Amino acid sequence: MSTAAPRTAGQEHLWSVDEHLEDILATVRPLDPIELQLLDAQGCVLVEDVTVPVSLPPFDNSSMDGYAVRVADVAGASEEFPAALEVVGDVAAGQSDLVRVGPGQAARIMTGAPLPPGAEAVVPVEWTDGGLGEGPVTGMRARSLAPEGAAGQVQVYRSAQARAHVRAKGSDVKAGDRALEAGTILGPPQIGLLAAIGRGTVRVRPRPRVVVMSTGSELVQPDEQLAAGQIYDSNSFALTAAARDAGAIAYRVGAVADDAETLRTTIEDQLVRADLMVTTGGVSVGAYDVVKEALSYVGDEDQAGSGIEFRKLAMQPGKPQGFGSIGPEHTPLLALPGNPVSSYVSFELFVRPAIRTLMGLDDVHRPRTRARLVADKALTSPEGRRQFLRARYADGTVTPVGGAGSHLVAALAHADALIVVPEDVESVEPGAEVEVVLLG
């Protein structure tokens, strides 16, 4: 799994951001396709082209409520000299037994109803007297209240061209056309199209199931009372929401105390519902950083090819990271640092691309752009580290938000971008062009 260069004893190797990401994406594989009902497939990626079996619309139909007529019968019609036509019946949406429209005749027709035989156009009801003989009307009387409206005579006050207000068969898509391409993410419009062409199921890569858990005995659930030395668990909420935003089905696990055996057991219990696991906290070098203690052993004896490797990356924030696989299915696990900004930046750089890879997407990264830096003073960055600074992006400019501290949650909530400062740059002057990762 590791792509890092060999290192001598006692030498600390700093992985680059690109090395770590490359290792993750080389290990994570798209989930196997399955057949799902349409609504269950929302948010999933289509794995095959879908061909239209029946044209849309499947027949010529009216785009208006009005009257189906022959063009010659309404030629030259006006309010001063209306065309008087015999109404021979109604044509409603879904109706199959259609009346025929002959010379001097009209059929009252509803939106979406098939164009009846003999008719060449539809005149909107607003162009007629609605059969009342009292000048132009604004709508039809309900059939249940006035069934006689389907018979008698109608005055038409305007002429109509052939095919006026008629939606032609196949004008949306034709039988044999490709409705959707493989690789399409199925949102509401795509689900609607599949239903419209008669597809009740579709073959997709399922949305990955992601289990998120935070570690730390100091963590308390929101709405509970804080004791001395305690803080609220925000990471698991932020990362679960981020996983859902990336397209996953995400499960949040309550914070786990700093006990290696408890954490190990919790992770093993969660494997049954995980295509990917994410932990936050406990990956640094402290005496209570139990994620390393709990996971370093995994797979060494029982699962060949499994195991978690803990690394230091040449980045800020987010230097300590862990990655590998766990359990009998070799489920990928990413262990992120515990500071809120570090964990979120790490998620965007590493976990989100992993989720999108599991989904089978080609483009797994957030969009990037170049922008002009707007700041009161130069930005500083540590030598040899790629720094990611929270920022706001607008109209080709980017402005830092908050300081560089990895604990500043409030500033993170107001950021919609990350400024990227390369490893070989230690200072960026206001007005300089910088690379920006767009988060929203």
Describe what is shown at a glance.
The chain is of the alpha/beta class and 440 residues long.
SSE layout and pairings?
Layout: E1 14-15, H1 17-27, E2 34-37, E3 45-46, E4 50-51, E5 61-62, E6 66-69, H2 71-74, E7 83-91, E8 105-109, E9 121-124, E10 153-156, E11 166-167, E12 178-180, H3 188-196, E13 201-205, E14 209-215, E15 219-220, E16 231-232, H4 235-246, E17 249-256, H5 260-270, E18 276-280, H6 290-295, E19 307-313, E20 315-316, E21 320-326, E22 331-336, H7 340-359, E23 368-373, E24 379-380, E25 386-394, E26 397-400, H8 409-413, E27 417-421, E28 427-428, E29 433-438
Parallel strand pairs: 1-19, 7-8, 14-17, 14-18, 15-16, 18-22, 20-25, 23-26
Antiparallel strand pairs: 2-13, 3-13, 4-12, 5-11, 6-8, 6-9, 7-10, 19-21, 21-22, 23-29, 24-28, 25-26, 25-27, 27-29
Distance between the termini: 32 Å
How does the helix and strand content classify structurally?
Answer: alpha/beta
- Overall average pLDDT: 90
Q: What's the β-strand tally?
A: 29
Q: What topology, given as strand order, has the largest sheet?
A: 1-19-21-22-18-14-17
Q: In what range is the share of β-strand residues?
A: 25-35%
The helical percent reads 10-25%
Low-confidence stretches: 1-10, 298-305
Largest sheet: 7 strands, mixed
